[in-house]
Amino acid sequence: MQVKVIDHPLIQHKLSLIRDVRTGTKEFRELLEEVAMLMAYELTRNMPLEETQVETPLTTCTCKMLSGKKIGIVPILRAGLGMVNGIVKLIPAAKVGHIGLYRDHETLKPVEYYCKLPTDVAERELIVIDPMLATGGSSVAAIDMLKAKGARHIKLMCLVAAPEGVNLVNDHHPDVEVYVAAVDSHLNENGYIVPGLGDAGDRIFGTK
Ligand code: PRP
Ligand code: URA
Question: Cross-referenced CDD domains, in alphabetical order (predicted)?
Fold first, then answer.
């Protein structure tokens, strides 16, 4: 199983609060945004830099700024929306594409209903975001859609994964690095991650 677990203490603390059934919608949203920001900080650790001349009030110095590829963030609707703001705060120049998928409750297979991406998706470093990687069907379908539009550099960032989901992404897209805050035990008979956090979309948007 190829997965990078970002287990920073702040992330683990906030994830425990997110999991807690007593955490209400407002706090859930705030925590998810904060964790997404912290995870994105780790995910971007190796972004390339280039030297540039900067004039300070005292002198001119050689400093470093980001160079290279432009970033694209692609939330899987709906629940992925809950992670967008945290990342955009760190990378304000990022473009945001949207992929609409929902998991059919009977078959657990993803159903596509929306796709709107930046036109230069092939040139961007894409970060696909979704709090939950359960069977992996939704993430695999989203990555399939991106690759069909020419995307070549894709990372997947989820909050909680089941081993089944990580393995499915690894099998279908071995080039895609998977980042999570936790790999949980298993999926239950309804395809929910155990212990998990319940239905992420419902908890973010207060629906049921
Ligand atoms: C959830 C979650 C993922 C998907 C994960 O979305 O946000 O997109 O399920 O399950 P999978 O790995 O088995 O495909 P859901 O389909 O409930 O839609 P929502 O975000 O609109 O609530
Ligand atoms: N989708 C969710 O929102 N939660 C799960 O545990 C599995 C799929």
Answer: PRTases_typeI
Q: State whether the beta carbon of 181 lies less than 6 angstroms from ligand 2.
A: no
Its pTM stands at 0.95
Q: Are 73 and 84 in contact (CB under 8 A)?
A: yes
- Tell me the domain boundaries of the chain: 4-205
Nearest in space to 156 (alpha carbons), one of 195, 184, 125, 119? 125
Residue 201 is assigned to a ligand binding site: no
Q: Which residues pair with 73 in a beta bridge?
A: 96, 127
Q: Would you state the CATH architecture of domain 4-205?
A: 3-Layer(aba) Sandwich (3.40)
DSSP H/E element including 17? helix 9-19
Q: Give the tens place of pLDDT for each residue, 68-112.
A: 779 999 999 999 999 999 999 999 999 999 999 988 888 989 999
Other C-beta atoms closer than 10 Å to the C-beta of 92 total 7
β-strands 95-96, 70-77 pairing: parallel
Answer yes or no: is the C-beta of 134 below 6 A from any ligand 2 atom: yes
Question: 3-class DSSP state for residue 59?
Answer: coil
